[in-house]
Design goal:
The protein contains four helices and seven strands; from the N terminus they run αβαββαββαββ. The protein is α+β, with helices and mostly antiparallel strands.
């Protein structure tokens, strides 16, 4: 009886090891396929950051003075977001800035692009408007919240779009600077992130 039990347990262990190896191989194979698919998806929903900003600004430069600062020698970055979605986010912020500066004689928007760090890059977009009153700052990303006679979907929609791609947007509180300042985080497409590593 003891010998029979020993052989059964030994056979179960061998069978378990074989199954475990088989499942491990299947998981590894699936992982490779998913990484390959991820690369295809990321490439299909990426756009060039500087080019997209420039194209979007073309619609606004006749209304306002715009300055763009970026790190020296920075090449255009592939960011993980569909071009039309990034254009929509930027257009919303630029339009909000123009609305906030409608009474200003000089209208200025500054865009500052940071270094790409940890597969992400940040943009700061600041206007010379009156800023966002402190009492409503926590509500600006709520659906249907608006200080204008509009739907209040602009900033919440922008936030949802960015988060869909792993990015985000937040209001930067800086009492020493006039106007509103938003920081956008975008994920950067690493061209070797989807390639098979040996």
């Amino acid at each position: 009886m003891i010998k029979k039990s020993y052989f059964l347990n030994s056979n179960k262990k061998k069978l378990s090891k074989k199954l475990l190896t088989k499942y491990s191989d299947a998981v590894s194979s699936l992982k490779k396929e998913l990484n390959s698919l991820r690369g295809v998806v990321e490439r299909s929903v990426s756009c060039l950051l500087l080019e997209t900003i420039s194209d979007c600004l073309n619609q606004y430069t006749r209304f306002t003075e715009v300055s763009v600062t970026k790190p020296e020698l920075m090449d255009d970055l592939d960011v993980i977001i569909a071009r039309e979605d990034l254009m929509q986010v930027l257009s919303n912020l630029f339009q909000n800035s123009l609305d906030a500066m409608r009474d200003n004689r000089v209208k200025k928007i500054s865009i500052s692009i940071g270094e790409a760090v940890n597969n992400s890059v940040t943009l700061k977009i600041q206007d010379a408007g009156s800023g966002i009153p402190e009492q409503i700052q926590e509500r600006i990303f709520e659906d249907n919240f608006s200080t204008k006679s509009q739907t209040g979907l602009g900033l919440p929609h922008a936030q949802k779009l960015l988060r869909r791609y792993g990015g985000d947007i937040q209001l930067v509180n800086n009492s020493s600077v006039k106007g509103a300042c938003f920081e956008i985080k975008l994920m950067v497409l690493k061209h070797d992130s989807w390639q098979e590593k040996n």
